[in-house]
Automatic annotation (TrEMBL):
<feature type="transmembrane region" description="Helical">
    <location>
        <begin position="46"/>
        <end position="67"/>
    </location>
</feature>
<keyword id="KW-0406">Ion transport</keyword>
<keyword id="KW-1133">Transmembrane helix</keyword>
<feature type="compositionally biased region" description="Polar residues">
    <location>
        <begin position="609"/>
        <end position="618"/>
    </location>
</feature>
<keyword id="KW-0472">Membrane</keyword>
<feature type="transmembrane region" description="Helical">
    <location>
        <begin position="475"/>
        <end position="495"/>
    </location>
</feature>
<feature type="transmembrane region" description="Helical">
    <location>
        <begin position="127"/>
        <end position="155"/>
    </location>
</feature>
<feature type="transmembrane region" description="Helical">
    <location>
        <begin position="190"/>
        <end position="209"/>
    </location>
</feature>
<feature type="region of interest" description="Disordered">
    <location>
        <begin position="599"/>
        <end position="618"/>
    </location>
</feature>
<keyword id="KW-0530">Neurotransmitter biosynthesis</keyword>
<dbReference type="GO" id="GO:0005886">
    <property type="term" value="C:plasma membrane"/>
</dbReference>
<dbReference type="InterPro" id="IPR001734">
    <property type="entry name" value="Na/solute_symporter"/>
</dbReference>
<keyword id="KW-0812">Transmembrane</keyword>
<feature type="transmembrane region" description="Helical">
    <location>
        <begin position="433"/>
        <end position="455"/>
    </location>
</feature>
<dbReference type="GO" id="GO:0008292">
    <property type="term" value="P:acetylcholine biosynthetic process"/>
</dbReference>
<feature type="transmembrane region" description="Helical">
    <location>
        <begin position="373"/>
        <end position="393"/>
    </location>
</feature>
<dbReference type="GO" id="GO:0005307">
    <property type="term" value="F:choline:sodium symporter activity"/>
</dbReference>
Length: 618
């Protein structure tokens, strides 16, 4: 039993727990009661710029990030040149800030799936939740796997016990504090990683059993063969573009006070992600030429760390190449840091499940408080799934890659279409979903022991591994994008051409909209104007047959929704008001929305008024 490491673990765990509970208490003192979804999921949209930058950076810089980077640098079969995840995820933050952060925050969504639910309907949104959930679970599994490996080195516990205990601690403060606890523990996490890793670098590099990393550059730099270039680019694009459609990212974006702030924290966090990978690379390089037989580590094979122990490279360097007091700080800080990273992904997955799956599909009458309790129960389920993956998956870096795969192939093209393709609809979304999934699965995946159904050019196969050198992930993503746009355009033109064709609308995506002048316009049923601030005044008259008659509405179509021209947004919770239109038996309903700069009270809620006059009262 390594007593200094055990003491460090206890101290830093207590620090994270105390910060988490303090943040939960602080949120309640500030008026965040925890009974509304925005308060718990988005911290009341009140995350400041500095805390936002820290929590956005810490979103990516966790256990899988630092341990996986060191592992890949040390691995003689890959090396530094194949360690593209830090650069890829940093680039994803820049791309996300340029094209998605402002738009999502301006539209006032609560989760990443809200625009899908708004444009494609509840059931299609539930289908899109599957790859989003898998991505978050894989990501959390990578974090917990790294933490289990670290604890195994420090206190000599088996990985299963380490993972379960650590996950329970991380879930505890997330359960009560929501995003407030997650954000403030992320600040502590980033500080711990920075201090814990950088303080160990000088000692590891000057140890008597090590040689200069510059003299061993050829050992840990790695190489990319020309024949592997398409595969290399494919993985880089997957990490860059596949790192965008994540609830854990958009949760930070949507919790920002303004849309401009959401962009700024994305850009600054990208620099932070790249900088925080440097110490892990140096540690992996030191381990690559270290004489491990000269230490107390007795599990070497031919003088090097065996393949099944490569994910322990970072904690092994901290323990065996550094003084006790440095190992105390480094191992304890890294363990606390990777523990606090898991809370973000668990909260993200639970938030989407409660708000976008359970509420609209299973329990439509659920109140805000009941949705919050569903989210809290889901935290345990997601945590259990991630624990299972962390225990049974061998490579941290491989798990890290898997978590972006389906997100890149399925969700990224859907996100582009839902925000930038005006005519995108459920038919195109479902078609693109099926095609993208089919193309990706038929390409095979060695990490899942899934053999390929189709062999692409330059296929690599040997007794121990196989992979497609052809950029199958990007190819599947492009196929999904093309099919989504093409099918959406065809079906949109088909149904808008003639109202008689609406009887073929099996997904009930379209409906007639009657104007006061008697003209008929066919619009997408799921493009709810309720999540946006509609130009005033807007009158909706419900005739006796249940059809809508829109008076004084601008006939221009918004480029995103295909509905009436709109400006800023409120939040998706107002969609419940729009559903009243379909059930009305007659009368006039006037819905007035104010723009985002009009606040009501200290909590910054949007003003809105709903006035209904029944025909019997006229």
């Amino acid at each position: 039993m390594y007593i200094p490491g055990l003491v460090a673990i206890i101290i830093f765990y207590l620090l994270i727990l105390l910060v988490g509970f303090w943040a939960a208490r602080k949120s309640r003192k500030n008026g965040q009661s925890g009974t509304e979804t925005e308060d718990v999921m988005l911290a009341g949209r009140n995350i400041g710029l500095l805390v936002g930058i820290f929590t956005m950076t810490a979103t990516w810089v966790g256990g899988g990030y630092i341990n996986g980077t060191a592992e890949n640098t040390y691995n003689p079969a890959q090396g530094l040149v194949w360690c593209i995840a830090p650069i890829g995820y940093a680039a994803s933050l820049i791309v996300g800030g340029l094209f998605f952060a402002n738009r999502m925050r301006s539209l006032g969504f609560v989760t990443m799936l809200d625009p899908f639910q708004n444009k494609f309907g509840d059931r299609m949104c539930g289908l899109l939740f599957i790859p989003a959930l898998m991505g978050e679970v894989f990501w959390t599994g990578a974090i917990l796997s790294a933490l289990g490996a670290t604890l195994g080195v420090i206190v000599e516990l088996d990985q299963q016990t380490s993972v379960i205990v650590s996950a329970c601690i991380a879930l505890l403060y997330t359960l009560f504090g929501g995003l407030y606890s997650v954000a403030y523990t992320d600040v502590v996490q980033l500080f711990c990683i920075f201090v814990g890793l950088w303080i160990s670098i000088p000692f590891a590099m000057t140890h008597t059993a090590t040689v200069s990393i510059s003299s061993t550059w050829s050992r840990w730099r790695g190489t990319v063969l020309l024949i592997d270039a398409p595969y290399y680019v494919d993985n880089f694009l997957m990490l860059t573009l596949g790192g965008i459609p994540w609830q854990v990212y958009f949760q930070r974006v949507l919790s920002s006070k303004t849309a401009a702030q959401a962009q700024i924290l994305s850009y600054v966090a990208a620099l932070g992600c790249f900088a925080m990978a440097i110490p892990s690379v140096l540690i992996g390089a030191v381990a690559a030429k270290y004489h491990w037989t000269l230490t107390e580590y007795n599990q070497t094979v031919d003088g090097v760390i065996p393949d099944d122990q490569m994910k322990l490279v970072l904690p092994l360097v901290l323990r065996y190449l550094c003084p006790v007091w440095v190992a105390f700080i480094g191992l304890g800080a890294v363990s606390a840091a990777v523990m606090s990273s898991s809370d973000s992904s668990v909260l993200s997955a639970a938030s989407m499940f409660a708000r976008n799956v359970v509420k609209p599909l299973v329990w439509q009458s659920a109140t805000e408080r009941q949705v919050i309790w569903v989210m809290r129960a889901s935290i345990f389920v997601v945590g259990a799934m991630a624990c299972a993956l962390a225990i049974y998956i061998k490579s941290i870096y491989g798990l890290w890659y898997l978590c972006s795969d389906l997100v890149y192939v399925i969700l990224f093209p859907q996100l582009i279409c839902v925000l930038y393709v005006r005519f995108a609809n459920t038919y195109g979304s479902l078609s693109g979903y099926i095609v993208g999934l089919f193309v990706r699965l038929t390409a095979g995946e060695s990490m899942l022991n899934l053999p390929p159904l189709f062999i692409y050019p330059n296929y690599y196969d040997d007794p121990t591994s196989f992979y497609q050198r052809f950029p199958t992930k990007t190819f599947a993503m492009i196929c999904s994008m093309i099919v989504t746009v093409l099918f959406s355009y065809i079906t949109d033109r088909f149904f808008r051409a003639n109202s008689g064709r609406l009887r073929f609308d099996v997904f009930h995506c379209y409906k007639e909209r009657h104007s006061a002048t008697g003209s008929v316009r066919i619009g997408n049923r799921f493009n709810r104007p309720s999540i946006r601030t509609v130009k005033l005044p807007v009158q909706v008259t419900c005739a006796a047959n249940g059809e809508e008659v829109i008076v004084n509405a601008d006939n221009e179509e918004d480029e995103v929704t295909g509905q009436e021209k709109v400006v800023e947004s409120t939040d998706l919770n107002q969609s419940n008001n729009s559903r009243m239109e379909d059930n009305a038996t007659g009368g006039v309903t006037r819905i007035s929305f104010y723009e985002n700069n009009v606040k009501d009270g200290k909590k910054g809620k949007m003003k809105r008024s709903l006035q209904t006059t029944n025909q019997a009262d006229l």
